[in-house]
Amino acid sequence: MSALPPLLHCRQLSLTRGGRLILDGLELTLHGGSLTALLGPNGAGKSSLLKCLTGELDHEGETRLFGRKRQEWDGTELAHRVGVLPQSSSLSFPFLCEEVVAMGRLPHSEPGSRRDEIVRAAMAHAGVEHLANRLYPGLSGGERQRVQFARVLAQIWQAPDADAPPRLLLLDEPTSALDLKYQHQLLTLARALTSRNTAVLVVLHDLNLAARYADRLLMLERGRLMADGPPARVLTPELVTRLYDYPAQVIPHPETGLPMVV
Protein backbone atom coordinates (compact mmCIF):
# COMPACT_ATOMS: atom_id res chain seq x y z
CA MET A 1 0.00 0.00 0.00
CA SER A 2 1.33 3.42 -0.99
CA ALA A 3 2.33 5.81 1.80
CA LEU A 4 1.04 8.74 -0.29
CA PRO A 5 -2.58 9.87 0.12
CA PRO A 6 -4.96 8.32 -2.42
CA LEU A 7 -5.99 10.27 -5.49
CA LEU A 8 -9.44 8.72 -5.32
CA HIS A 9 -11.26 7.17 -2.40
CA CYS A 10 -14.84 5.86 -2.31
CA ARG A 11 -16.68 4.76 0.80
CA GLN A 12 -19.88 2.71 0.70
CA LEU A 13 -20.67 3.72 -2.88
CA SER A 14 -24.10 2.39 -3.82
CA LEU A 15 -26.32 3.03 -6.82
CA THR A 16 -29.99 2.12 -7.30
CA ARG A 17 -31.82 2.69 -10.58
CA GLY A 18 -35.38 1.70 -11.38
CA GLY A 19 -35.65 -0.06 -8.05
CA ARG A 20 -32.66 -2.28 -8.87
CA LEU A 21 -29.40 -2.24 -6.93
CA ILE A 22 -26.60 -1.61 -9.45
CA LEU A 23 -23.66 -0.98 -7.10
CA ASP A 24 -23.61 -2.31 -3.57
CA GLY A 25 -21.46 -0.55 -0.96
CA LEU A 26 -18.21 -0.43 -2.95
CA GLU A 27 -14.95 0.62 -1.31
CA LEU A 28 -12.30 1.81 -3.76
CA THR A 29 -8.95 3.54 -3.38
CA LEU A 30 -6.60 4.55 -6.20
CA HIS A 31 -3.05 5.82 -5.79
CA GLY A 32 -0.81 7.56 -8.27
CA GLY A 33 1.63 5.48 -10.26
CA SER A 34 -0.75 2.61 -10.98
CA LEU A 35 -3.01 1.36 -13.76
CA THR A 36 -6.07 -0.47 -12.47
CA ALA A 37 -8.32 -2.52 -14.76
CA LEU A 38 -12.00 -2.86 -13.90
CA LEU A 39 -13.34 -6.22 -15.06
CA GLY A 40 -16.52 -8.23 -14.87
CA PRO A 41 -19.25 -9.75 -17.03
CA ASN A 42 -21.87 -7.65 -18.79
CA GLY A 43 -24.16 -5.97 -16.29
CA ALA A 44 -21.64 -6.14 -13.45
CA GLY A 45 -21.76 -2.35 -12.97
CA LYS A 46 -18.42 -1.30 -14.48
CA SER A 47 -19.60 1.65 -16.58
CA SER A 48 -22.06 2.69 -13.88
CA LEU A 49 -19.20 2.90 -11.41
CA LEU A 50 -17.22 5.20 -13.72
CA LYS A 51 -20.28 7.41 -14.20
CA CYS A 52 -20.62 7.70 -10.42
CA LEU A 53 -16.97 8.67 -10.12
CA THR A 54 -17.38 11.39 -12.77
CA GLY A 55 -20.52 12.76 -11.13
CA GLU A 56 -22.74 11.77 -14.05
CA LEU A 57 -24.90 9.58 -11.80
CA ASP A 58 -26.13 10.49 -8.33
CA HIS A 59 -25.30 7.83 -5.79
CA GLU A 60 -25.06 7.07 -2.10
CA GLY A 61 -21.76 7.09 -0.27
CA GLU A 62 -18.78 9.41 -0.37
CA THR A 63 -16.25 10.02 -3.13
CA ARG A 64 -13.05 11.98 -2.48
CA LEU A 65 -10.74 13.20 -5.22
CA PHE A 66 -7.23 14.33 -4.29
CA GLY A 67 -8.24 14.46 -0.64
CA ARG A 68 -11.41 16.54 -1.03
CA LYS A 69 -15.06 15.54 -1.38
CA ARG A 70 -16.06 15.57 -5.01
CA GLN A 71 -18.79 18.18 -4.49
CA GLU A 72 -16.25 20.58 -2.98
CA TRP A 73 -14.34 20.87 -6.24
CA ASP A 74 -14.89 23.64 -8.75
CA GLY A 75 -15.71 22.04 -12.09
CA THR A 76 -13.04 23.88 -14.06
CA GLU A 77 -10.40 23.18 -11.44
CA LEU A 78 -11.25 19.50 -11.46
CA ALA A 79 -11.18 19.35 -15.26
CA HIS A 80 -7.47 20.25 -15.14
CA ARG A 81 -6.75 17.06 -13.24
CA VAL A 82 -9.38 14.46 -14.20
CA GLY A 83 -9.70 13.16 -17.75
CA VAL A 84 -12.61 10.95 -18.81
CA LEU A 85 -12.93 8.89 -21.99
CA PRO A 86 -16.49 7.52 -22.36
CA GLN A 87 -17.40 4.45 -24.38
CA SER A 88 -18.61 6.53 -27.31
CA SER A 89 -19.15 10.13 -28.35
CA SER A 90 -22.34 11.52 -29.90
CA LEU A 91 -20.47 14.41 -31.53
CA SER A 92 -21.81 14.77 -35.08
CA PHE A 93 -20.97 18.36 -36.04
CA PRO A 94 -18.48 18.72 -38.92
CA PHE A 95 -15.50 19.67 -36.77
CA LEU A 96 -11.97 18.99 -37.89
CA CYS A 97 -10.19 16.42 -35.73
CA GLU A 98 -7.74 19.04 -34.46
CA GLU A 99 -10.74 21.13 -33.34
CA VAL A 100 -12.14 18.14 -31.44
CA VAL A 101 -8.82 17.63 -29.65
CA ALA A 102 -8.63 21.36 -28.90
CA MET A 103 -11.90 21.04 -26.97
CA GLY A 104 -9.82 19.36 -24.28
CA ARG A 105 -8.15 22.72 -23.61
CA LEU A 106 -11.41 24.63 -23.02
CA PRO A 107 -11.02 24.52 -19.19
CA HIS A 108 -7.59 26.15 -19.48
CA SER A 109 -6.63 29.81 -19.86
CA GLU A 110 -3.61 30.11 -22.12
CA PRO A 111 -2.38 31.77 -25.32
CA GLY A 112 -3.60 30.23 -28.54
CA SER A 113 -0.06 29.32 -29.53
CA ARG A 114 0.36 27.25 -26.36
CA ARG A 115 -2.99 25.55 -26.92
CA ASP A 116 -2.04 24.64 -30.48
CA GLU A 117 1.30 23.26 -29.30
CA ILE A 118 -0.42 20.99 -26.77
CA VAL A 119 -3.01 19.85 -29.29
CA ARG A 120 -0.30 18.85 -31.76
CA ALA A 121 1.65 17.02 -29.06
CA ALA A 122 -1.43 15.15 -27.78
CA MET A 123 -2.36 14.06 -31.31
CA ALA A 124 1.20 12.88 -31.93
CA HIS A 125 1.21 10.85 -28.72
CA ALA A 126 -2.13 9.26 -29.64
CA GLY A 127 -0.91 8.56 -33.17
CA VAL A 128 -3.61 10.64 -34.90
CA GLU A 129 -1.64 13.66 -36.12
CA HIS A 130 -2.33 12.56 -39.71
CA LEU A 131 -6.07 13.02 -39.03
CA ALA A 132 -5.74 16.67 -37.96
CA ASN A 133 -7.54 18.13 -40.99
CA ARG A 134 -10.05 15.31 -41.47
CA LEU A 135 -13.69 15.87 -40.57
CA TYR A 136 -14.52 13.99 -37.38
CA PRO A 137 -17.94 12.56 -38.50
CA GLY A 138 -16.27 10.88 -41.50
CA LEU A 139 -13.91 8.80 -39.37
CA SER A 140 -14.26 5.12 -38.53
CA GLY A 141 -15.26 4.14 -35.01
CA GLY A 142 -11.68 3.29 -34.10
CA GLU A 143 -10.34 6.57 -35.48
CA ARG A 144 -12.95 8.50 -33.50
CA GLN A 145 -11.94 6.70 -30.33
CA ARG A 146 -8.28 7.55 -30.85
CA VAL A 147 -9.09 11.21 -31.54
CA GLN A 148 -11.17 11.32 -28.35
CA PHE A 149 -8.25 9.83 -26.45
CA ALA A 150 -6.06 12.62 -27.82
CA ARG A 151 -8.66 15.11 -26.57
CA VAL A 152 -8.43 13.67 -23.06
CA LEU A 153 -4.63 13.76 -23.21
CA ALA A 154 -4.79 17.42 -24.23
CA GLN A 155 -7.14 18.17 -21.36
CA ILE A 156 -4.81 16.88 -18.62
CA TRP A 157 -1.57 17.71 -20.45
CA GLN A 158 1.42 18.64 -18.31
CA ALA A 159 4.79 19.92 -19.46
CA PRO A 160 7.50 17.28 -18.90
CA ASP A 161 9.49 19.60 -16.65
CA ALA A 162 6.51 20.91 -14.67
CA ASP A 163 6.05 20.31 -10.94
CA ALA A 164 2.57 19.07 -11.74
CA PRO A 165 -0.23 18.02 -9.40
CA PRO A 166 -1.50 14.42 -9.46
CA ARG A 167 -4.02 13.43 -12.11
CA LEU A 168 -6.74 10.83 -12.58
CA LEU A 169 -7.61 9.21 -15.91
CA LEU A 170 -10.86 7.25 -16.29
CA LEU A 171 -11.24 5.17 -19.46
CA ASP A 172 -14.45 3.29 -20.26
CA GLU A 173 -13.78 0.44 -22.70
CA PRO A 174 -11.24 2.50 -24.67
CA THR A 175 -10.12 -0.46 -26.81
CA SER A 176 -13.55 -1.72 -27.89
CA ALA A 177 -13.43 -0.15 -31.38
CA LEU A 178 -9.69 -0.53 -31.95
CA ASP A 179 -7.75 -3.14 -33.85
CA LEU A 180 -4.98 -5.06 -32.09
CA LYS A 181 -2.16 -2.61 -32.85
CA TYR A 182 -3.99 0.40 -31.47
CA GLN A 183 -5.29 -1.47 -28.43
CA HIS A 184 -1.71 -2.03 -27.36
CA GLN A 185 -0.66 1.50 -28.34
CA LEU A 186 -3.38 3.11 -26.24
CA LEU A 187 -2.76 0.97 -23.17
CA THR A 188 1.00 1.41 -23.44
CA LEU A 189 0.51 5.18 -23.38
CA ALA A 190 -1.99 4.99 -20.53
CA ARG A 191 0.48 2.96 -18.50
CA ALA A 192 3.28 5.42 -19.28
CA LEU A 193 1.17 8.25 -17.84
CA THR A 194 1.18 6.59 -14.43
CA SER A 195 4.88 7.39 -14.02
CA ARG A 196 3.99 11.03 -13.30
CA ASN A 197 1.77 10.61 -10.23
CA THR A 198 -1.27 9.67 -12.27
CA ALA A 199 -3.81 6.96 -11.45
CA VAL A 200 -5.51 5.27 -14.39
CA LEU A 201 -8.75 3.30 -14.04
CA VAL A 202 -9.76 1.49 -17.22
CA VAL A 203 -12.78 -0.68 -17.96
CA LEU A 204 -11.77 -3.67 -20.09
CA HIS A 205 -13.43 -6.82 -21.38
CA ASP A 206 -10.25 -8.50 -22.59
CA LEU A 207 -8.79 -10.31 -19.58
CA ASN A 208 -5.45 -10.87 -21.29
CA LEU A 209 -5.02 -7.17 -22.11
CA ALA A 210 -5.81 -6.42 -18.48
CA ALA A 211 -3.24 -8.93 -17.25
CA ARG A 212 -0.59 -7.50 -19.53
CA TYR A 213 -0.98 -3.79 -18.75
CA ALA A 214 -2.61 -3.45 -15.33
CA ASP A 215 -0.85 -3.45 -11.98
CA ARG A 216 -4.12 -4.27 -10.27
CA LEU A 217 -7.39 -5.91 -11.26
CA LEU A 218 -10.81 -5.21 -9.76
CA MET A 219 -13.42 -7.85 -10.53
CA LEU A 220 -17.09 -6.88 -10.22
CA GLU A 221 -20.13 -9.13 -10.16
CA ARG A 222 -23.64 -7.69 -9.81
CA GLY A 223 -22.32 -4.48 -8.32
CA ARG A 224 -20.10 -6.13 -5.73
CA LEU A 225 -16.33 -6.33 -5.61
CA MET A 226 -15.43 -10.00 -5.89
CA ALA A 227 -11.63 -9.75 -6.23
CA ASP A 228 -8.96 -7.07 -5.91
CA GLY A 229 -5.26 -7.62 -6.48
CA PRO A 230 -2.48 -8.24 -8.98
CA PRO A 231 -3.34 -10.26 -12.13
CA ALA A 232 -1.67 -13.43 -10.89
CA ARG A 233 -3.90 -13.50 -7.83
CA VAL A 234 -7.19 -12.42 -9.42
CA LEU A 235 -7.17 -14.40 -12.68
CA THR A 236 -7.75 -17.87 -11.32
CA PRO A 237 -9.54 -20.53 -13.37
CA GLU A 238 -12.17 -20.88 -10.65
CA LEU A 239 -13.08 -17.19 -10.54
CA VAL A 240 -13.05 -16.65 -14.30
CA THR A 241 -15.13 -19.77 -14.90
CA ARG A 242 -17.70 -18.77 -12.29
CA LEU A 243 -18.09 -15.12 -13.30
CA TYR A 244 -18.02 -15.57 -17.08
CA ASP A 245 -19.68 -18.99 -17.24
CA TYR A 246 -16.78 -20.14 -19.37
CA PRO A 247 -14.54 -23.19 -18.77
CA ALA A 248 -11.37 -21.12 -18.45
CA GLN A 249 -7.79 -22.23 -18.19
CA VAL A 250 -5.11 -19.86 -16.95
CA ILE A 251 -1.54 -20.47 -18.05
CA PRO A 252 1.65 -18.35 -17.91
CA HIS A 253 2.33 -16.30 -21.03
CA PRO A 254 5.39 -17.85 -22.74
CA GLU A 255 7.21 -14.51 -22.95
CA THR A 256 6.03 -12.38 -20.02
CA GLY A 257 5.08 -15.08 -17.52
CA LEU A 258 1.86 -13.16 -16.80
CA PRO A 259 -1.38 -15.11 -16.46
CA MET A 260 -3.14 -15.78 -19.77
CA VAL A 261 -6.74 -16.93 -20.04
CA VAL A 262 -7.36 -19.53 -22.74
Automatic annotation (TrEMBL):
GO molecular function terms attached to this record: ATP binding
Entry coiled-coil feature ranges: none
Key words of the record: ATP-binding, Nucleotide-binding, Translocase, Transport
A Pfam family annotated for this UniProt entry: ABC_tran
Highest taxon above the source species: Bacteria
Residue ranges annotated for the ABC transporter domain, each copy included: 8-247
Family matches, as InterPro entries: AAA+_ATPase (IPR003593), ABC_transporter-like_ATP-bd (IPR003439), ABC_transporter-like_CS (IPR017871), P-loop_NTPase (IPR027417)
Role summary: Part of the ABC transporter complex HmuTUV involved in hemin import. Responsible for energy coupling to the transport system.
Name listed for the protein in its UniProt record: Heme ABC transporter ATP-binding protein
Organism name: Aeromonas bivalvium
Taxonomic lineage from the root: Bacteria, Pseudomonadati, Pseudomonadota, Gammaproteobacteria, Aeromonadales
